[in-house]
Amino acid sequence: MINKSLFNELISYEDNNNNMIKKIMTIGVLGASTLGMMAANASPNGVYVTGQLGYANTHMKNKIVLSGAEGSGFSIPNNTSGGRLALGYQFNPYLAVEMGYMRLLKQKGTLKLAPTSAWAAGSETLAQNAFDVAAKGIIPISDKLNIYGKIGVAYLTSTITSDFNSIQNNQNDYFGIAKHKFAPEAAVGVSYNITHNVALDTSWTHIQPLGKNRPGNIDFVAVGIGYSFG
């Protein structure tokens, strides 16, 4: 014969287990529903375009320097503005691939001449642009807010041109800067969906040239707007 108190304990244990299982199932369903809603309201899949404007640090000030007697000389500034256009394809709420073109405004260093300098007046100009291809990982934070990271490779062009007495010459070899370089690229950013197809975007992109005769690293901070055709 089963002891009554033991029987009651068994019934209570079973009820507690059932309640716990129900709670776990409820949490699981709610979690799955939340993730499903976030994925459904995240940036749509398919082709998208993005345009950005921003500020860049080229880290070239110490690489393009010319110094002469009594303070004559010049250097290229580090800071400039630029823009980037990108075309991408989003496979799902979490993964996309992207190719883009970034162009920086020309940076110019004007030769400062001492009174006794024998140099002619002139300047050096740096022009840089880059094509890139990257994989993009996306984390939906809410139905509108996403954070993302990108990793890829950029093909960087750096052209240094001198202008002395209206005579222009390429100076890449003189300063030991390769005109063309492949470089690893990484970026982090945040996007906010204004509508299902339109999103505001802000990001930081870092391009890291490697090897000999490399130009400076490029850090590009930008804001922009994107449109998805999905």
Tell me the distance between the termini: 69 Å
The CATH class of the largest domain is identified as Mainly Beta
Largest sheet: 8 strands, antiparallel, barrel
Mean pLDDT, rounded to whole units? 83
For the secondary structure, the number of strands is: 12
Percentage of β-strand residues = over 45%
Shape: elongated
Give the SSE order as H and E letters: HEEEEEEEEEHEEE
CATH topology of the largest domain: Porin
How many domains would you count in the coordinates?
A: 2
Architecture of the largest domain, according to CATH?
Beta Barrel
**How many helices in DSSP terms?**
2
Helix % is 10-25%
Structural class: alpha+beta
Gyration radius (Cα, Å) is: 29 Å
Which strand order spans the largest sheet, edge to edge or round the barrel?
1-4-5-7-8-10-11-12
Low-pLDDT sequence parts: 27-41
Structure description:
- This protein has 230 residues and is α+β, with helices and mostly antiparallel strands.
- The chain folds into 2 domains: 1-41; 43-228, Beta Barrel (Porin).
- Helices cover 18% and strands 54% of the residues.
- The chain has an 8-stranded antiparallel barrel with strand order 1-4-5-7-8-10-11-12.
- The radius of gyration is 29 Å and the shape is elongated.
Task: Throw out a few tags for this protein.
about 230 residues; two-stranded antiparallel ribbon; 2 domains; 2 helices; Porin; alpha+beta
Outline of the structure:
The protein has helices at 4-41, 172-175, and strands at residues 46-57, 65-67, 73-75, 79-92, 95-104, 107-110, 122-140, 145-164, 167-170, 180-193, 198-207, 218-228. It is of the alpha+beta class.
